[in-house]
């Protein structure tokens, strides 16, 4: 169910959320699972998928945590800073053939 929640794409208003995931639990779990499964890989497709959900206020915190896990491999005060998040966003906009 958690993976299905992400595969559906961004939610449309309150209707989708109240029908399928009223407490945002499945989307939180999907973000957590992606972060843990892809931890430290810096895999751009996973980061792009997560980034598409960052503006969803009900799961934005979980998405940011998952992106930090994927990019840095660990969650610390340094990796959870605004500067660290900007580093992730810069990485996402960089050329795909650049190596990190």
- The N- and C-terminal alpha carbons lie at a distance of 33 Å
Strand pairing plus helix content: what structural class?
Answer: mainly alpha
DSSP, total strands = 0
The radius of gyration computed from the alpha-carbon positions, rounded to a whole number of angstroms, is 14 Å
Helix and strand sequence:
HHHHHH
Count of the domains: 1
H/I helix tally: 6
Question: pLDDT under 50 segments (min length 5)?
Answer: none
Cα shape: globular
Q: Give the averaged pLDDT, no decimals.
A: 83
Percent range for helical residues? 55-70%
Portion of residues in beta strands equals under 5%
Key attributes of the depicted protein:
mainly alpha, single chain, 100 residues, globular
Descriptive overview:
There is one protein chain. Helix content is about 60%, strand content about 0%. Helix 3 runs parallel beside helix 5 and helix 4 runs antiparallel to helix 5. The protein has one domain (about 1-95). The chain is mostly helical. The mean pLDDT is about 85. The chain starts with a helix and ends in a 7-residue tail after the last helix. It is globular, with a radius of gyration of 14 Å. The chain contains six helices and no strands.
């Amino acid at each position: 169910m958690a993976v299905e929640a992400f595969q559906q794409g961004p939610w449309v208003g309150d209707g989708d959320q109240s029908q399928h995931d009223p407490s945002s639990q499945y989307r939180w779990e999907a973000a957590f699972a992606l972060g843990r499964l892809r931890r430290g890989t810096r895999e751009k497709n996973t980061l792009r998928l997560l980034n598409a959900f960052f503006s969803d206020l009900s799961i934005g915190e979980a998405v940011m945590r998952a992106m930090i896990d994927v990019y840095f491999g660990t969650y610390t005060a340094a990796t959870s800073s605004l500067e660290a998040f900007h580093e992730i966003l810069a990485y996402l906009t960089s050329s795909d053939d650049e190596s990190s």
